[in-house]
Every structure is written in structure tokens, then in C-alpha cells.
Amino acid sequence: MSNQGKCPHCLVVVQFIEPTIKVGNFQMAEGQVPKIDTREQSLTVTPSECPGCGKMILTGQLISKSPQKATTLLLYPFGSSRQPVPTEVPENIANMYREGALVLPFSEEASAALSRRCLQALLNEAGKSSKKDLVDQITEVLPALPPYLKTQVDAVRNIGNFAAHPSKSSASGEIVQVEHGEAEWNLDVLDMLFEFYYVQPKKIDVKRQALDKKLKEFGKPPMK
């Protein structure tokens, strides 16, 4: 784990500290970490401590030797380090998002497939898209989005290189090769769309109801 990041327990961005590592009566020197090495792979386990909540975090750096590939895994706590899904989001969409976030440390391809399915369901239900393919759905809803969201949503297909992988649009849940960071970007965009489609309208509705109540107390008609 890098020295700075979001604690997967309390979800606060902190500067992590190194805890004391002991194996029986043996105490490892500062900076040393346990490492498992085989002919095909090596795994380095790095413990960290959150200075805020004081809880332990374990990450693993898994390196495959042929072909060489490094993967960072969150070993403890098991789960997603992303913010909880807002309660205003429908459960079917929230579940797809949670699944995509949960598998992200283990497979970016699987996470991206789940987040594309989630985006497709969101654009159908909240965006009122009548299209079938994800690219067409994005194109259809873009004019109704504010400028800051247009750029972010349109980047989903650009970062994902949908032209090279048409199944990402026509069969959005298919597991195909993705660019590094693509899966996390999809989840970031979903976070913004949740805020736009569900959270903000709910806040506005609550404020409107409060205003109508005050108007009624003064003998005035509600807002139209």
C-alpha cells in the first residue's frame, strides 16, 4: 500500500504508518515485509496502520514472473474501499455497483463488465434511454446532462476503446480485456451519476416540501 490513501475501514484519506511486525518472539526490522517466493510467482505482504481509526490494513503485491505482471490485492479487510452507495439508489443498480467494486482488486476485467452493466441499467431507468447498446445509450442521454458530466460519461467509451471492443456496448456484461484504470473510472462515473439522478433530486424535493410547509403556514399556495 502506498504511504497515503483512503483507509478501507474508515474511508478517510490518511498518511499510513508502519506497524510493528512480530513472528513469535522475533521482531522484524522497520521496513521489512514478509515475502513468499515460488518459481512462478512472488507475493509480498505489506501491513499498514490507519492513524485515524487505528485499524490494520494488509495489502499484497503479487508478481507473476512469466509473463511479468504485478497485481496489488487488498487482503484485509476484505471488501471495497469505495464510499457506500447512496440509499436513494435503487437496490438492483446498487447491487451491481457493489459487486463491481468488490471484485476490482482481483479482476479489473470482471469489475469493468459489472460496472458497464450497471451503467446500462442506470441509463435505461434514470436516463430514460430507449436504446439497446451502451454506446447508443450514452449518445442519447448526453444532451440532457450538465457539461461537467457530459465529459465524464463520454470518456467511458473513449477510455474503454469501445471501437476495438464492440461487445462492451452490445454485450456490456461480457468480460474482455480492459485498460488499466478503466474499471475504476467506470465506478467513479457511476458515483457522479448517482449524485445527479438520485441524490440531488431527493435533496431538492425535501427542501421543496419544507418550503411548501412554510408557505402553507403563512396562508400562501405551494410552489408550482
User: How many domain regions?
Assistant: 2
Helix content: 40-55%
Poorly predicted tracts of residues = none
Question: What is the count of helical runs?
Answer: 6
Output the structural class. Answer: alpha+beta
Write the element-wise H/E pattern from the N-terminal end onward. EEEEEEEEHHHHHH
Strand line-up in the sheet with most strands: 5-6-7-8
Q: Nutshell version of this structure?
A:
The chain is α+β, with helices and mostly antiparallel strands and 224 residues long. 41% of the residues lie in helices and 18% in strands.
Keywords:
2 domains; single chain; alpha+beta; about 220 residues; two-stranded antiparallel sheet; 4-stranded antiparallel sheet; flat; about 20% strand
Give a structural overview.
With 224 residues, this protein is of the alpha+beta class. The chain folds into two domains: 4-22 and 34-76; 91-211, no CATH class. 41% of the residues lie in helices and 18% in strands. It has helices spanning 91-103, 108-125, 134-141, 147-159, 167-170, 182-217, and strands spanning 4-6, 13-15, 22-23, 26-27, 35-37, 41-49, 56-65, 68-76. It has a four-stranded antiparallel β-sheet, with no helix packed on it. The chain has a two-stranded antiparallel sheet with strand order 1-2. Strands 3-4 form a two-stranded antiparallel sheet. α1 (91-103) runs antiparallel to α2 (108-125), α2 (108-125) packs across α3 (134-141) and α2 (108-125) packs parallel to α6 (182-217). It is flat and about 75 Å long. The model has no long low-confidence stretch (mean pLDDT 83).
